[in-house]
Each structure stands twice: as structure tokens, then as C-alpha cells.
């Protein structure tokens, strides 16, 4: 049976230091058939320009658009009461993140906007009798991944259009926390985040998925030079940067 190996990065959030180390790990591997980036490449972090440059250098990569990438091309900050992911638009944290989106867009300029516009919403690959769906969160929405029941309903719909599929894999990013959930012949995977994990483990992550006679899901956690990113946050004083410093240090959305 044909084997296919995917290398997966996700939720970089303008952390060019973590991205660089992730690409080093991928490049050291042999027999990588496809690189997939699950989105949220930009926003929040301090180095969108370097991140864009690094992403443009990757060969054989499918880029999937995340909600933060979408905020940039939709110019979220121009809305009358901009909010994101259900946050109160009057919440100071929401306002700071919206300002961060604007700052990031200004740093990326037209090349960054065009890069995002070329991203896809989702990517489907069939290897033998296994169907793999890659999204940022879900093809129906980009700011909340499916519950197991929603994914089972999706599987039922997809299986009607694809005869002969015996295994369904759903791979998403967005939540910044690892996930592995299986029911019958459906498995949902999330590696966490390459650039901004929330699971109180400050190491970045790269995932490798091999599909063939068996399914192999491997998540590699790695250290990177966090001081470079923290220093850049302090120097550039990006909107929301004080909270981001703590997230980089502690891999938590709180200050502890």
C-alpha cells in the first residue's frame, strides 16, 4: 500500500524563532511528501515580516487560512464594534488584539495580504482507503473546531461521496492544545501550536502524520530561543505585547 507522510505546522503567530526551529526539524527528516500549514501564521507575535519571508521560502507547502489571517484581509479593525471569537468588543483585551491585527497588517503590507488571499480553507487528501481532512478549525467555521459528534456527522456526509474509505482523519489547529480523540474509524488530531502553545508547555510543536497500512501520528516538541521573541516584543512594543510575553514564557493565556 502507498505510504504518505505529512509534516504539519500550525499557529505560528509571527513567532519566527519557533518557525525557524520547526523548519529545521522538518528539513532533517527524509521522505516528507507534503508540508501542511494549518493557519494563524500571523498576528499576536512580534515578527510578521520575518515570518512571511520564512513561509515564502518553504517548498511543497499547502497553506490553510486561520481566523487571525482572515482578520487581516477583512480589516477587522475597520468594523464599528470589532470583536473576535465571541469576545466583548468593549473588553480591553479584545481592543488590544484588534489593534494588534492592524499593526500586523501594516507590517505585512500588500505582499502579506496577497499571501493570505492565496491560502485555502481546507485540504483533503485520500491515501488508499484513508481520507485526511486538514483545516484550521473546521471548513464550516475557522474559530472553533468540531466536537466529536459534529465530526461524526461530517464523516457520514463525506463517506456518502467517497466509496471505499475505511478510515477518516481530521487534523486541525486553532486551539493551541494537543488533541487526540477517536471514535470508531474517525480520529481527530491537533498537535497544539508551533509558535504559541497554551498547554503550559512552552515548547513549540511539529507533527508528522504517516498514512499507509497503519496510521502514525507523531508530535515533536522542541525548545527554541524564546529570549529573541521576548526581546522583539519589548523592542517593538506590539499591541498586547505584555500578555504575549507571559504566554511565550508560560504557555498559558493567563499570567501564571
What does this protein structure show overall?
This protein has helices at 16-27, 48-56, 67-74, 92-117, 148-161, 226-236, 241-250; strands at 4-9, 34-37, 61-63, 122-127, 130-135, 167-171, 179-183, 186-190, 204-211, 215-222. By secondary structure, it is of the alpha/beta class. The protein has a single domain, classed as 4-Layer Sandwich (Purple Acid Phosphatase, chain A, domain 2). Strands 3-2-1-9-10 form a 5-stranded mixed beta sheet. A 5-stranded mixed beta sheet has the order 4-5-6-8-7, with helices on one face. Helix 2 links the parallel strand 2 (34-37) and strand 3 (61-63). Helix 2 packs parallel to helix 4, helix 3 packs across helix 4 (92-117) and helix 6 (226-236) runs antiparallel to helix 7. The chain is globular. The relative contact order is 0.18. The model has no long low-confidence stretch (mean pLDDT 96).
Amino acid at each position: 500500500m502507498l505510504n504518505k507522510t505529512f509534516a504539519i505546522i500550525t499557529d505560528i503567530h509571527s513567532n519566527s524563532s519557533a518557525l525557524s526551529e520547526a523548519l529545521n526539524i522538518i528539513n532533517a527528516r527524509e521522505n516528507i511528501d507534503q508540508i501542511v500549514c494549518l493557519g494563524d501564521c500571523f498576528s499576536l507575535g512580534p515578527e510578521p515580516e520575518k515570518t512571511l519571508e520564512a513561509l515564502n521560502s518553504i517548498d511543497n507547502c499547502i497553506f490553510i487560512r486561520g481566523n487571525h489571517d482572515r482578520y487581516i484581509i477583512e480589516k477587522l479593525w475597520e468594523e464599528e464594534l470589532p470583536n473576535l471569537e465571541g469576545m466583548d468588543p468593549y473588553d480591553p483585551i479584545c481592543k488590544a488584539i484588534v489593534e494588534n491585527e492592524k499593526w500586523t497588517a501594516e507590517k505585512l503590507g500588500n505582499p502579506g495580504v496577497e499571501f493570505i488571499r492565496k491560502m485555502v480553507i481546507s485540504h483533503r487528501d485520500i491515501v488508499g482507503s484513508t481520507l485526511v481532512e486538514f483545516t484550521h478549525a473546521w471548513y464550516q467555521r475557522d474559530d472553533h473546531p468540531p466536537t466529536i459528534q459534529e465530526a461524526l456527522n461530517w464523516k457520514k456526509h463525506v463517506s456518502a461521496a467517497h466509496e471505499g474509505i475505511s478510515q477518516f482523519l481530521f487534523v486541525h489547529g486553532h486551539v493551541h492544545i494537543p488533541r487526540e480523540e477517536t471514535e470508531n474509524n474517525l480520529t481527530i488530531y491537533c498537535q497544539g501550536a508551533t509558535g504559541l502553545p497554551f498547554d503550559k508547555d512552552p515548547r513549540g510543536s511539529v507533527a508528522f502524520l504517516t498514512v499507509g497500512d497503519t496510521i502514525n501520528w507523531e508530535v515533536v516538541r522542541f525548545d527554541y530561543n524564546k529570549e529573541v521573541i521576548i526581546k522583539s516584543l519589548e523592542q517593538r512594543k506590539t499591541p498586547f505585547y505584555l500578555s504575549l510575553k507571559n504566554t511565550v514564557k508560560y504557555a498559558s493565556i493567563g499570567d501564571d
